[in-house]
């Protein structure tokens, strides 16, 4: 994003190309490809978050991720992009105004560049919104979350303009953030912290202490990490905003430094987890340690040497794993640790630029400045610290205000009985098996909670029609057994029931030597009567009715006796 071209208009014949749209064909290809890959991070977030919550809420968290793209993406096109990068005459250092509902016509000289830039920024915006969903998991009203997702674009877009927009006051002061440790992750983490604090902890979360709750699906959580890891490479490398000139060299450097940072973070969080758990490995320590290091390296991903990336990632990882239990002790229940991963590590990532940044000649990413440890003065460190402070204050305050307003319209917290039953059942009519739902429903029955709407919901993975057919077949078999017992009582030891190998109950011949009759269910001439075991011309399927065993077989209306 801040790669030396964004925010630097370039003259072209009789008009000026804004830096955001100064893209060659090869640059546009790079930006578009990176955007496509960044969108796959939504899969990673969904898998990670669904793996961290209880099974009865895993579908709900995936639906929130879908809503973030659908509603958040729509509002970003509607007004979000214009609030970050609009070029209207009313734009000011706080907010851009213009380019709303972006749709350049055919024939516009910058149509391709504008669409490429919009898609790239859209992928960042939806990521920032999705970060918040995990912190609100398992107790947030889904309808309230939809409204929050629709409006949360404002929380991200205004500070993104401060850092990356031509009008932004932090950009004009010289703030550096290549791929979004601040505008994306710090804003998302601060918003997650405010959301979790305002919602309050899940029911019973701290009744047994502060230890983490069991994961719903640890494998999903690990798979989510790998998908995010993959997407992060495009996130950081793509932020060179092209590969023309010297940018391709820094794109390669960004990818390698991203991996180096994650190596340092994974190593540090592993050592910490082994130490803390007496030789055991806590899965969330490792996952969030790696993610925290990736957040930390993002702001200056192509400004560091390899050893510096290792150190920055290691420090970020340590901050993350220390902050998670601290937030729990503060009563801030964040099921996925988004506040620590994106918030705390986002602060460190922004400040680290002021300490370790190289001057990436010939790009003017840092405006010719270097970090304090690279011979630079205190200015860059100061402006980076100011940026982190402004972003934290905006993220927390704007989210509190937004949720306060939404809560006046739709309660943001689920009802306690809905939380006990799980959002999958109460919000999406999806019933999981063997997760304690029957126990919860039984416990809620005495307090007169209306459960009519959910009582008849079938468990997932079952075809109710097939189950009914199987029940009918079992009832038919039971009824045949009853007739066998009855005939044995009537006929004594001379009655016998024969079933040869390969025969089915419909092939059975009941013989009674005493009565001299043969009961045949294979005889097509017999009567077909509703409510009982019968064979029609078109079906062998038994129909079950309520039958009382007769005194004599020939008087039973459900069967035909043939001489």
UniProtKB/TrEMBL annotation:
<feature type="transmembrane region" description="Helical">
    <location>
        <begin position="144"/>
        <end position="164"/>
    </location>
</feature>
<feature type="region of interest" description="Disordered">
    <location>
        <begin position="543"/>
        <end position="563"/>
    </location>
</feature>
<keyword id="KW-0472">Membrane</keyword>
<dbReference type="InterPro" id="IPR024041">
    <property type="entry name" value="NH4_transpt_AmtB-like_dom"/>
</dbReference>
<feature type="transmembrane region" description="Helical">
    <location>
        <begin position="310"/>
        <end position="327"/>
    </location>
</feature>
<feature type="transmembrane region" description="Helical">
    <location>
        <begin position="215"/>
        <end position="235"/>
    </location>
</feature>
<keyword id="KW-1133">Transmembrane helix</keyword>
<feature type="transmembrane region" description="Helical">
    <location>
        <begin position="184"/>
        <end position="203"/>
    </location>
</feature>
<dbReference type="GO" id="GO:0005886">
    <property type="term" value="C:plasma membrane"/>
</dbReference>
<feature type="domain" description="Ammonium transporter AmtB-like">
    <location>
        <begin position="30"/>
        <end position="429"/>
    </location>
</feature>
<dbReference type="GO" id="GO:0050911">
    <property type="term" value="P:detection of chemical stimulus involved in sensory perception of smell"/>
</dbReference>
<dbReference type="GO" id="GO:0071242">
    <property type="term" value="P:cellular response to ammonium ion"/>
</dbReference>
<keyword id="KW-0924">Ammonia transport</keyword>
<keyword id="KW-0812">Transmembrane</keyword>
<dbReference type="InterPro" id="IPR029020">
    <property type="entry name" value="Ammonium/urea_transptr"/>
</dbReference>
<comment type="similarity">
    <text>Belongs to the ammonia transporter channel (TC 1.A.11.2) family.</text>
</comment>
<feature type="transmembrane region" description="Helical">
    <location>
        <begin position="378"/>
        <end position="406"/>
    </location>
</feature>
<dbReference type="Pfam" id="PF00909">
    <property type="entry name" value="Ammonium_transp"/>
</dbReference>
<dbReference type="GO" id="GO:0097272">
    <property type="term" value="P:ammonium homeostasis"/>
</dbReference>
<feature type="transmembrane region" description="Helical">
    <location>
        <begin position="30"/>
        <end position="48"/>
    </location>
</feature>
<protein>
    <recommendedName>
        <fullName>Ammonium transporter</fullName>
    </recommendedName>
</protein>
<feature type="transmembrane region" description="Helical">
    <location>
        <begin position="110"/>
        <end position="132"/>
    </location>
</feature>
<feature type="transmembrane region" description="Helical">
    <location>
        <begin position="286"/>
        <end position="304"/>
    </location>
</feature>
<dbReference type="GO" id="GO:0008519">
    <property type="term" value="F:ammonium channel activity"/>
</dbReference>
<feature type="transmembrane region" description="Helical">
    <location>
        <begin position="339"/>
        <end position="358"/>
    </location>
</feature>
<feature type="transmembrane region" description="Helical">
    <location>
        <begin position="69"/>
        <end position="90"/>
    </location>
</feature>
<keyword id="KW-0813">Transport</keyword>
<dbReference type="InterPro" id="IPR001905">
    <property type="entry name" value="Ammonium_transpt"/>
</dbReference>
<feature type="transmembrane region" description="Helical">
    <location>
        <begin position="255"/>
        <end position="274"/>
    </location>
</feature>
């Amino acid at each position: 994003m801040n790669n030396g071209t964004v925010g630097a208009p370039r003259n072209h014949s009789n008009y000026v190309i804004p830096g955001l749209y100064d893209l060659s064909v090869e640059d546009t290809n790079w930006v578009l490809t990176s955007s496509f890959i960044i969108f796959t991070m939504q899969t990673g977030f969904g898998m990670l978050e669904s793996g961290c919550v209880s099974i009865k809420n895993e579908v709900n968290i995936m639906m929130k991720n879908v809503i973030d793209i659908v509603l958040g993406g729509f509002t970003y096109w509607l007004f979000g992009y214009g609030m970050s990068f609009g070029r209207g005459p009313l734009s000011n250092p706080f907010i851009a105004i213009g380019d709303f509902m972006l749709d350049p016509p055919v024939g516009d000289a910058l149509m391709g560049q504008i669409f490429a830039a919009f898609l790239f920024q859209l992928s960042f915006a939806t990521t920032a919104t999705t970060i918040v969903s995990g912190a609100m998991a398992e107790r947030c009203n889904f309808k309230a979350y939809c409204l929050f997702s629709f409006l949360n674009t404002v929380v991200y877009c205004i500070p993104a303009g401060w850092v990356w927009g031509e009008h932004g006051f932090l950009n004009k002061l010289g703030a550096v953030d290549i791929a979004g440790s601040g505008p994306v992750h710090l804003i998302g983490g601060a918003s997650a912290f405010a959301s979790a604090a305002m919602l309050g902890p899940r029911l019973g979360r701290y009744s047994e202490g502060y230890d983490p709750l069991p994961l719903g699906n640890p494998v999903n959580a690990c798979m989510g990490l790998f998908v995010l890891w993959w997407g992060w490479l495009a996130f950081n490398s793509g932020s060179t905003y092209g590969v023309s000139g010297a940018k391709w060299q820094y794109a390669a450097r960004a990818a390698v430094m991203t991996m180096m940072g994650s190596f340092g973070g994974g190593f540090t969080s592993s050592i910490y987890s082994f130490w803390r758990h007496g030789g055991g490995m806590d899965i969330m320590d490792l996952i969030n340690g790696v993610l925290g290091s990736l957040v930390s390296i993002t702001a200056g991903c192509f400004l560091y040497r390899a050893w510096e990336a290792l150190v920055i990632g290691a420090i970020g990882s340590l901050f993350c794993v220390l902050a998670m239990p601290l937030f729990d002790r503060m009563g801030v229940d964040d099921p996925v640790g988004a506040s620590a991963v994106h918030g705390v590590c986002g602060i460190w990532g922004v400040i680290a630029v002021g300490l370790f940044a190289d001057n990436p000649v010939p790009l003017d990413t840092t405006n010719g400045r270097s970090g304090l440890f690279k011979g630079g003065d205190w200015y860059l460190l100061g402006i980076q610290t100011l940026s982190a402070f402004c972003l934290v204050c905006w993220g927390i305050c704007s989210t509190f205000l937004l949720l306060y307003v939404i809560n006046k319209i739709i309660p943001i917290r689920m009802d306690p009985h809905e939380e006990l039953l799980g959002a999958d059942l109460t919000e999406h009519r999806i019933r999981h098996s063997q997760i304690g739902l029957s126990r919860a429903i039984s416990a809620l029955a005495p307090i007169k909670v209306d459960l009519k709407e959910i009582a008849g919901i079938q468990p997932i993975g079952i075809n109710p029609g097939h189950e009914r057919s199987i029940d009918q077949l079992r009832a038919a078999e039971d009824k045949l057994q009853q007739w066998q017992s009855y005939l044995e009582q009537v006929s004594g030891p001379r009655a016998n029931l024969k079933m040869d190998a390969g025969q089915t109950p419909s092939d059975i011949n009941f013989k009674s030597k005493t009565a001299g009759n043969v009961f045949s269910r294979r005889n097509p001439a017999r009567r077909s009567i509703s409510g009982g075991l019968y064979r029609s011309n078109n079906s062998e399927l038994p129909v079950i009715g309520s039958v009382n065993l007769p005194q004599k077989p020939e008087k039973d209306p459900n069967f035909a006796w043939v001489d």
